[in-house]
């Protein structure tokens, strides 16, 4: 089957609090895989990889979080100023709704996930029923975000972003206008403020949200296959290791890759799942997706 020939459809997913999310489903059958985006990266960016997985017998769901990209216009007000959201809401409402939807349409009790950067963190913050539905997480370029731990290219502008632009512009605009600045992208006010607070703290989310979130993370037992990239301009290997340390009871493995391994000039923070990702890298990531159980969905 050619990659472009896989069945696909636009779908709407309603969260428990009534928010409608825009999503796309690739493939009509097969092992279910949820593909969760990095911060401010639209689901359409992952379409080539989603089609690639679907052409190899998987059912793949992509989605945009509330206030972001296609979900901003799915229903209700178009303006990001009126979106009420933060990272915990995204994980416990939006991510959880997408997990349940994929369980239902696939008829499987468990699904696998590929989380890109922020996308893998949804698993850490999500509620326990949602986490029990995940058979395995492939975490791509995902790590804690304390700005001093970032790679040099991003670390240079991080103080401007977290100590200047977000605190100053978010109250004025009612959201963080990253699209106009060409710096990250537009973010709902709650997300932007929380992101800045987390990234200013040496212990990231745990240092801001407190011991209860740390206990919640330590309870995670979902197997995690983490991938870091030597040329990532933001998330360093140290950041990835710091995130894995939050979940000591989750079976985990870290693989550090370089673009030279695949004969390409660059992979960086977002290239592993993009249109031009090396075929061999796609194959390596997809091999980590645990076949899901055939038990009916709970």
Describe, in plain words, how this protein is organized in 3D.
It is a single chain. By secondary structure, this protein is α/β, with parallel strands linked by helices. Helix content is 38%, strand content 19%. It contains 13 helices and 10 strands. The protein has helices spanning 47-54, 69-72, 87-106, 118-125, 128-132, 152-155, 158-173, 178-181, 189-200, 204-209, 211-218, 237-245, 279-286; strands at residues 8-14, 20-26, 31-36, 58-63, 111-116, 134-140, 175-177, 186-188, 224-229, 252-257. The strands form 2 sheets. The protein has an 8-stranded mixed sheet with strand order 1-2-4-3-5-6-9-10. A two-stranded antiparallel sheet has the order 7-8. Helix 12 (237-245) links the parallel strand 9 and strand 10. Helix 3 packs across helix 4 and helix 7 runs antiparallel to helix 9 (189-200). The longest helix has 20 residues, at 87-106. It is globular, with a radius of gyration of 18 Å.
Compile the SSE list and pairings.
Blueprint: E1 8-14, E2 20-26, E3 31-36, H1 47-54, E4 58-63, H2 69-72, H3 87-106, E5 111-116, H4 118-125, H5 128-132, E6 134-140, H6 152-155, H7 158-173, E7 175-177, H8 178-181, E8 186-188, H9 189-200, H10 204-209, H11 211-218, E9 224-229, H12 237-245, E10 252-257, H13 279-286
Helix pairs in contact: 3-4, 7-9
Task: Pick out its properties.
298 residues; alpha/beta; disordered C terminus; 8-stranded mixed β-sheet; single chain; two-stranded antiparallel sheet; 13 helices
């Amino acid at each position: 089957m050619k990659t472009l020939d896989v069945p696909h459809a636009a779908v709407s997913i309603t969260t428990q609090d009534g928010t409608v999310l825009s999503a796309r489903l690739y493939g009509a059958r097969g092992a279910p895989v949820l593909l969760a985006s990095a911060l401010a990266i639209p689901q359409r960016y992952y379409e080539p990889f989603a089609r690639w997985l679907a052409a190899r017998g998987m059912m793949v769901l992509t989605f945009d979080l509330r206030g972001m990209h296609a979900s901003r216009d799915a229903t209700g007000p178009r303006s990001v100023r009126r979106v009420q959201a933060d990272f915990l809401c995204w994980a416990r409402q939006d991510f959880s709704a997408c997990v349940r939807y994929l369980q239902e349409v696939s008829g499987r009790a468990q699904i696998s996930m590929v989380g890109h950067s922020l996308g893998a963190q949804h698993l850490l913050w999500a509620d326990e029923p949602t986490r029990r539905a995940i058979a395995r997480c492939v975490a791509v370029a995902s790590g804690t975000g304390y700005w001093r731990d970032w790679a040099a290219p991003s670390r240079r502008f991080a103080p401007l972003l977290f100590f200047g632009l977000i605190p100053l512009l978010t109250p004025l605009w009612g959201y963080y206008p990253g699209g106009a600045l060409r710096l990250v992208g537009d973010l709902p006010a709650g997300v932007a403020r929380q992101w800045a607070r987390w990234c200013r703290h040496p212990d990231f989310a745990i240092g801001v949200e407190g011991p209860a979130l740390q206990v919640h993370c330590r309870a995670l037992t979902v197997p995690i296959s983490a991938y870091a990239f030597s040329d990532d301009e933001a998330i360093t290997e140290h950041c990835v290791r710091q995130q894995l340390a939050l979940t000591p009871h989750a079976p985990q493995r870290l693989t550090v890759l370089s673009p030279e391994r695949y004969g390409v000039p660059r992979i960086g923070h977002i290239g592993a799942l993009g249109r031009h990702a090396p075929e061999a890298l796609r194959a390596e990531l997809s091999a980590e997706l645990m076949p899901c159980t055939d038990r009916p969905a709970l």
